[in-house]
Amino acid sequence: xxxxxxxxxxxxLAFVEHVGLLVIAIATVFAMTNEVVxxxxxxxxxxxDLLLLFLYLxxxxxVGLYYRSGKLPVRSPLYIGxxxxxxxxxxxxxxxxxxxxxxxxxxxxxxxxxxxxxxxGHIRFPYPTDGQQDKP
Length: 136
What we know:
Structural class: mainly alpha
Strand content: under 5%
Shape: flat
Oligomer: single chain
């Protein structure tokens, strides 16, 4: 009975997780399509539009990576955060005061250092393969 409940709970959580990923993917494709339609109707493509499309692609790649590997590397959201902050900096640089500009660039630097630290940790201390994991 206990194993049945555990198996059902695992199935239910996996189902909700997949539904959530599907909703994220559909919403991202919808937003991307909306942005492309806006660019076509304006007959103009700005750097901000390209960076926004890149963010959408990163989100889709993150969902696809999760579906392929079953794992979500923490680096992916960090990359998305760096691009989002860079986009914010590029769009609003004329209206930013020095302190805000320094804060945004400092945030990008902190995220880049976090990626570097995580990457170093993965190389120096790799995860055990699935067959070698200790089971409690």
